[in-house]
Amino acid sequence: MSPKRTYAALAALSLAAGTLAAAGVANADHRPQRPVAFQRTATYPVFQNRPAGEDTASETVAEISAVSEDGRTLVYTDAAARRIGFLDIRHAERPRGLGTLSLAQLGDAEDEPTSVSVVGQYVLVVVNTSASHTAPSGRLDVISLRDRKRVASFDLGGQPDSIAISKDKRYAAIAIENERDEEATPPGGEEGDLPQLPAGFVQIVDLKSGSSPAGWRTRAVPLTHADGTALPTLAAAGITEPTDPEPEYVSVNSRNQLALTLQENNGVVLIDLPTGRITKAFSAGTASVGGIDTVEDGTIDLTGSITDVPREPDALGWIDDRYLATANEGDWRGGTRGWSVFDSRTGKVVWDAGNSFERLAVRYGLFNEGRSENKGTEPEGLAIAEYDGVRYAFVGSERSNFVAVYDISRPTRPVFRQVLPTTNGPEGLLPIPSRGLLAVSSEEDDAEAGVRASVSVFRLGKGTPAFPGIVSAPDSTGAPIGWGALGALSAVPGRPHQLYTVTDAAYSPTRILTVDTARRPAVITRALTVKDAAGQPVGYDAEGIFARPQGGYWLAVEGKTGAGNQLVRLDRDGVTQQVVSLPADVAAGLGGQGFEGVTATTDRHGREVVWAALQREVKTDPAGIVRLGRYDVQAGTWSWYGYRLGTTTTPGDWIGLSEITVVGDKLAVIERDKLNGPAAKVKRIYTVDMPKSAAPSGSLPVLPKKLAHDVLPDLRATNGWTQEKLEGLTVAGNGDVYAVTDNDALDDATGETVFLDLGSSKRIFGRRG
């Protein structure tokens, strides 16, 4: 069977998990084949590639990337630090920093790289040198890969954005954007409106194969008349403001046809590279999209819609010599939250993602609800490449931190295959088919939050990817159940393969989610809205959940102040039945870090005891001693035990608890630091013997702890950004131990949720749970 037919057969049986093919598909000799998918092999934080002596907290990013022709050296632009960086990716599991090249040393301290490409032994870097929006300028620097010295430089005559190389390596094409000033007001317009001159254009570089860069030549392709008036071709195409085209992104097909987007103008232009002649221009058109979230209110509500919105595409790519695809990020007036395929002969849309791209973000727990009123997932980057006879489209979500993979063997009928999680702001999508790799460079860098810009590497291969560990099923309307910020877990009484989890204050109202762990990945199958005593939906900062065998639930609710910390008992319908406050003296000693977990026991006489963990110390308690609370439901009384936290020497860090659960005659807790990425050190499960009675009033006996399992290696094994908030833990009815990370609803986090089956309780805790 040919590779293409093998992939097609596997794809036909693709699972809902989103991998490229289903497990268990048999080959000709009836042996099962493992699924084929892109597996994440490494996540490299580019701050580790900074120059010696530079502050590790200095902003440094990876925006657009390119690769050497042997596929072993990756080059990325770092606009924040005004340089380009080099990575050795010969070993895809262990990228290695090769240092950087400062553009300030080649020009001015404010010179900013905007894109990069590689031809032969040369790196082509386009550089923005503009003094202002009204005086745009730029250059093309040609750097030797061998010694990193500049061998040639070309004046581009304006502010450049992207660069593309023709497949025959005869031409480079550069979009000269001359971008608008969003704070300027043109005559008769509003702030940020077009036109704002000078107009942008295209620069073609004749590479003259075999010649040195000194022999290369540039030639401009104007997109307006010399007097600034509109070209009839652009005006007739319905371009928004053809006197100020602002080209954004370029792509070249095998016939040396250049396609470029005019993002702010909602258009696409085709140019014949050998002659520099504009052959076609067309509008990207508008779209109406329903079933999306359009209100930033802390609720993932997929009932909103947008009507007749311009697509305003950013990146584009040729699928073949006829069809091209666009990522419809939007700019000032548009953005349709998806991507489209156009027939270049007619300029017509032959396929559009509609609401499906945004709904992927929801289903995979990556939806950035805080961008709902803006442009949602903001699909920005797009790349097309062929691997083993199958052509794929990769579409990156700038705001929800993922890349969606589609099989586009039939250009007019793309088929979704997989979601790849990234770090924040995936900008550069770099297929490396010769090595079966995909590199994704991310432009957001936040040292204070501990989430750094990085280059993620994926390899196409056999096996089930670590991501996703959990997804959601459709609700009764067919929309995926919205979820995120999972900070707690509980077993479901009588259901060995089900768990409960609960959303925290990142979303409102609070919802209890049912998780089916019998499937791979685990699936959120049901959402129960939590209500107050009057039966109205309510938003609790639920940091712990326990499903009572006698029916209903306990929630551990964290307050913004100590007095706001409460135990809340719900009935089986999620309606509040009881609220238990902390004792006044304990509440007075807490700040904003209170309850973080809840569990309970019921003896054979029906006496229920609830255990709750506080995250940090009460101010009046000894340093490093945090409280485990014992609440006797029948007596209505609290008593307290102490737990000794580990220590940290990292400035700004702290150690605290984030979960508690009963394991036989023990209590298991999660102890963690507040660090993530390569800095993370403490993500551990400890146990203490569960006291059989209340502690004496006014005392705080410290319970000896025992390490049960270090979860950090499990988190690192995903080859992604190590998540900070390991917050959920339980033992399911099937005896397996499950843990989950809180993705903070993508606030100061990558948004990836790691859902772990750590194995049997007997293996973790030395006994059956």
Q: Over all CA atoms, what is the radius of gyration?
A: 28 Å
Beta percentage is: 35-45%
Q: Return the CATH topology of one domain.
A: Tachylectin-2, Chain A
Q: Average pLDDT value?
A: 94
Structural summary, described in words:
There is one protein chain. The chain is mainly beta. It has a domain of 279 residues: Tachylectin-2, Chain A (5 Propeller), CATH 2.115.10. The chain has six helices and 52 strands. A five-stranded mixed sheet has the order 33-37-36-35-34, with no helix packed on it. The protein has a four-stranded antiparallel sheet with strand order 3-32-31-30, with no helix packed on it. A hairpin with a 2-residue loop joins strand 46 and strand 47. It is elongated, with a radius of gyration of 28 Å. The N terminus is likely disordered. Keywords: Signal. InterPro entries: Choice_anch_I, Mesenchyme-surface_protein, Phytase-like_dom, Quino_amine_DH_bsu, WD40/YVTN_repeat-like_dom_sf.
Features of the shown structure:
Quino_amine_DH_bsu; four-stranded antiparallel sheet; five-stranded mixed sheet; 5% helix; 769 residues; disordered N terminus; single chain; Tachylectin-2, Chain A
